[in-house]
Amino acid sequence: QVQLVESGGGLVQAGGSLSVSCAASGHIFSIAAVGWFRQAPGKEREFVASIKWGTIKGTSETSYSDSVQGRFTISTNYVKDTAYLQMNSLKPEDTAVYYCAATTTYSGWSFADSYTSWGQGTQVTVSS
């Protein structure tokens, strides 16, 4: 079992930046990748970004949705067992509850069904 706890998020004006973190505990050795998803009111949960667990900066295997590509950066610190999502140039449409998730499989990282462990979610609100 892997437990995930998110932190960060909050309220920011459009064009601003926020960072959210995801601390992992438990059977960390079993994690293949960590993903970030978001869910806005009345909408389905959508993929934001994913990263192979334990990736060393500069050698990352990452993936982003088209809507955040170039604005968001996913990273990990495997010493701290933490994943991060740095969000820049935020837009009102980025407003959502952001969830981190962990998977033990090595494919399908953009699909929520591939993930077996989820955090509680953290609210990100971007005002116009």
Written account of the structure:
The chain is mainly β and 128 residues long. It is built from no helices and eleven strands. The strands form two sheets. Strands 2, 4, 5, 6, 9, 10 and 11 form a seven-stranded mixed β-sheet that branches. The N and C termini lie far apart (40 Å).
Q: How do the strands and helices of this protein lay out in sequence?
A:
Blueprint: E1 2-8, E2 10-13, E3 18-26, E4 33-39, E5 46-52, E6 62-64, E7 72-77, E8 82-87, E9 96-103, E10 117-118, E11 122-127
Parallel strand pairs: 2-11
Antiparallel strand pairs: 1-3, 3-8, 4-5, 4-9, 5-6, 7-8, 9-10, 9-11
Defining traits:
mainly beta; globular
Oligomer: single chain
The N- to C-terminal Cα distance equals 40 Å
Report the total helices: 0
How large, in whole angstroms, is the Cα Rg?
Answer: 13 Å
Q: Roughly how much helix do the residues carry, as a percent range? A: under 10%
Tell me the structural class: mainly beta
Helix and strand succession? Answer: EEEEEEEEEEE
Proportion of strand residues: over 45%
Regions with little confidence, pLDDT below 50 for 5+ residues? none
Please tell me what the overall shape is. globular
Nearest-integer average pLDDT: 93
Q: Strand tally, please?
A: 11
Largest sheet: 7 strands, mixed
Give a brief rundown of this model:
About 0% of the residues lie in helices and about 50% in strands. The chain is mostly beta strands.
